[in-house]
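During the practical work, I worked with a single protein chain and the tokens that describe its fold, as given directly below.
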Amino acid sequence: MRRTLSRLVLLLAALAALVAGPAAAQSLNVEIVGGLKTAIPIAVVPFAQAGGAPLPTDVADVIRADFNRSGKFRSLDKNDIVETPSQGSDVKFATWRLLKQDYLTIGRISDAGGGMLKVEYELWDVNRQQSLLAQSFTAPAGDLRGVAHQIADQIYEKITGVRGAFWTRIAYITAVGVGNNTTYSLIVADSDGYNPQVVARSRESLLGPAWSPDGSKIAYVSFESGNSQVYVQNISTGSRSLIASHPRGINSAPAWSPDGSKLAVSLSYVGNPEIFVIDVASRTETRLTNNFAIDTEPTFTPDGQSIIFTSDRSGKPQLYQMSASGGAAQRLTFQGGFNASASVSYDGKQIAMVQGNGNVYRIAIMDRSLGGQVRFVSPGNVDDSPSFAPNASMLLYAASQGTRGVLYAVSADGLVRQRLVLSDGDVREPSWGPYRQR
């Protein structure tokens, strides 16, 4: 219960002086922890470059890192690559079979004119000696990381049948400084932590970033009126809209409906935290819960028909589900003394949550297609704020490392974790964004 209540206490206590505006942000340091020997072996050969100055991004390195953190693939170490073909006619399949590689990715980069580069790649099935993909992208040198992520997505989808989610973005909160000199920032970055940009900045805590379904906006909580307020920020234009600002009590925990027209929130101006749905265009509020418990952290199911939320109406925080129009709520979680902070997979079959037993708080995934079977994907001791990738193959969560807050991106089986650490300060409250438009 302490994680949910700590947010409520923080919201009630915080006063803010917000300073917002786009700016460069401190980068996250990235480290992959663990690995899976049974993952699919794939080699990604360094892409050949047809003349010109050295490029700012090694496309093959980015693809390799994407595969390694997915939990589905095991990329051949760059130092073990003994041949560097750049097109199919150059491939000696016997070499890659000896290296025990199932798949091979090769490519080349050339000048496309007008300041643009042409990036071509091929995916080969080593055992069948069969071409599976052969595609190209045209982009400026500064966009090569994005191109690499898109290539990794296409290969991931071709082999697994599931759309890749490497070319997506994440949002998170950073805290840099000590005491009254702490600065909090809402950051948007690539899914691997690169290219961070500041969306909002405050001298007091920012909370609960939530992506709109089209990825153009982020809802979050700030405090510039002396009380918590829910804002929606347009990432491209920098404009923002005030959504909930009741002067009494808290305004917190925004979550978008699948069609982007509504926000579910927790508001306490009625006496205690209750779940409301707000129409973003008209600001019309509809109250969904009415009891003496703390009801918070709502999230819509993918079909938009239901809302899953955290409530302590049974004595301790557990997850409940009700119709998106209100009505009776059904308790979903019974294992563990504490279950909160739900994130629902794209198909509605899996619910990631914080599960607490004693003083240990870990990220658990409940599989509704397997009768509510629960598996843990984090070690604890104080893990929080799970957020599924749009394909549910990975999820983000926050953790404590000594006295500092860090993020982890973990494969859905929990076997591969990527640690994202701020070189100076804490990072917390992660939210994984939706697919980008292809």
